[in-house]
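Action item from last meeting closed. Structure (140 res):
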């Protein structure tokens, strides 16, 4: 990612915080777009939306810290792998986040912002989908 893209993504998340975005909207949108996923989640989402948004915001903060970003994304990946989340579902969630950003920020979410967010989501999910290498795997 370029420094300009990092700045754009961070400004989006600052604007969302000022707008008072409720993270549950991401899950509502996810279930609207992909109702088949609803059964994978508890009826009462509890703190899950807030935890997701806090985690995503933490990743955005670390976009210019490769080691920190990788470590945080790897921790999130381990959790999601245990839950059986696959790459298609990561894509679906990214679509829902993008839609919620667009509906919250409107015209302030420009094509440049959207491209920067898409690059961020791609980078994070790419890191998350990498399997950790074991010492034996490193040899072969």
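Sequence:
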């Amino acid at each position: 990612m370029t420094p300009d893209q990092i700045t754009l993504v961070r400004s989006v998340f600052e604007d969302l915080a000022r707008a008072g975005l409720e993270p549950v909207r991401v899950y509502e949108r996810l279930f609207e777009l992909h109702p088949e996923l609803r059964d994978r989640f508890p009826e009462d989402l509890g703190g899950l939306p807030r935890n997701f948004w806090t985690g995503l915001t933490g990743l955005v903060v670390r976009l210019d810290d490769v080691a920190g970003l990788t470590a945080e994304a790897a921790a999130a990946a381990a959790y999601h792998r245990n839950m059986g989340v696959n790459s298609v579902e990561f894509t679906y969630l990214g679509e829902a986040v993008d839609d919620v950003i667009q509906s919250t920020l409107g015209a302030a979410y420009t094509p440049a912002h959207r491209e920067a967010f898409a690059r961020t989501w791609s980078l994070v999910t790419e890191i998350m989908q990498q399997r950790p290498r074991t010492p034996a795997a490193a040899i072969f």
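Note appended to the action item: The chain has one domain: 3-130.
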